[in-house]
Amino acid sequence: MDLTQNVKAVQEKIAAAALAAGRDPAEVTLCAATKVQTDDTVRAAVAAGIRVCGENRVQELTAHLEADAYAGAEVHFIGHLQTNKVRQVVGRVALIHSVDSEKLLRAIDAQADKLGLIQDVLLEVNVAREESKGGILPEGLPALAELALGCPHVRLRGLMAIPPVSTVTGENRKYFAEMRHFLVDIIGKMSDNHSVVDCLSMGMSGDYEDAIAEGATLVRVGTALFGPRPPVTGPAH
Ligand SMILES: *Cc1c(COP(=O)(O)O)cnc(C)c1O
Fold first, then answer.
1. pLDDT digits (tens, 9 = 90+) for 32-79
2. What pTM, to 2 d.p., does this model score?
3. Atom of ligand 1 nearest to the CA of 98
4. N or C: which end of the chain has fewer CB within 10 A?
5. How far is the CA of 66 from the centre of ligand 1 (A)?
């Protein structure tokens, strides 16, 4: 596996997908999903041109931060976040992708207040209504978005989704399109422009080109950069 080559190949496919959709490739950010990767692999990814790393697990985030493995890149939290771990994440990452409840939102707001900062967040939507997945169901989204826009120490930046793993090209396009509509609805209901709500975090190794065709501004890619991951043995977060 050649990480540098993979980064280049994915970046090229992102640019091609954006151009095919009549979009500016600069509108789409590649976030490397670094779960299970070592400090050295994270460093190598950054050296290969990765500008954003997405971390799933608080423990790995903390370890990579302590090792200064992300130096030169921005860090996002993309995994399920438990309220009792908010302290280890707020203020340490540029963007939390996975806010899916009022309780979590309020905990992030309170911690950001304590630290005297404003935390950028996305709301995670369970767009395919999967029992096994986190994310707020679509009908709960307007209320959670309104709440987020009212939190003084949280800046709502957009939405995130993890649709089912797709094996067939085009399979997830309907979900990506739904996500874009959800974002447009939120923007339409905003009474002022105090925050820029324009981020759509969607698309992974199997479907990022489809996600870009439907408006993704950030794709989270692991396997296509780092190769297959070993099966998960411990708890997921
Ligand atoms: C692992 C992970 C990804 C990347 O998945 P790949 O299929 O390996 O590209 C993206 N988003 C989240 C939230 C993840 O946990």
1. 999 999 999 999 999 999 999 999 999 999 999 999 999 989 999 999
2. 0.95
3. 13
4. N
5. 23
